[in-house]
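call fold(seq) -> tokens
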Amino acid sequence: MATALTLMAALPAVADSLVVVSIAGEAYDGPPSFDLLINDKVIGSGTLSKAIRTEADGRLFTKPRPSTFLEQFSFTVPDDVLTPDAEISLILTNDKFIRLDGAGEDGVLDRNLFIDFVRVNDIEVTSADMVLIHNGDVVHYSYQAGLLPIYETGYRAVVRPPAGGWLTKDAVAKVGLLDIPMPLPRPKDLTLGVGLVQQ
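ret:
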């Protein structure tokens, strides 16, 4: 018979968390890059490979299917870094911009990021539930094709922890353990109702 003790031993002692970022971008003289931060500490970086080229292909939000430019980046984060109340954020690290008559689609060549969602283990936060911060203040930008834009260095797309905090994989496993019913021994002198037969 399985016991709570043996099931507990089967769980990992330390479980990292998986943070997945879904993001699109606009490129100019190279693709945009970003940092992923947790509580102001950089824990990962990425450079987009599918960013639309503003010099040749125009702007992301004027395309009929901007979602085709989305790509995902995955980061493994130790649980002592991703605390339950951690704040997760994304920044553009290599902004570049020029306004040039006749260039591109609208005379603007630019590197930008467009955030779709951030997922922490099984908790997904979409762009609609993020905030854009600049110099400590919330900035309200129009969403582009349902995505939260980061147009400049110094702006930060922030994912605040949900009510109850982030659940790590280890925490989810422990919750599942508490929900596992343990078989109880059946007493030999169990009194049965009329018509019932003890198996």
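The helical segments are 4-10, 169-178.
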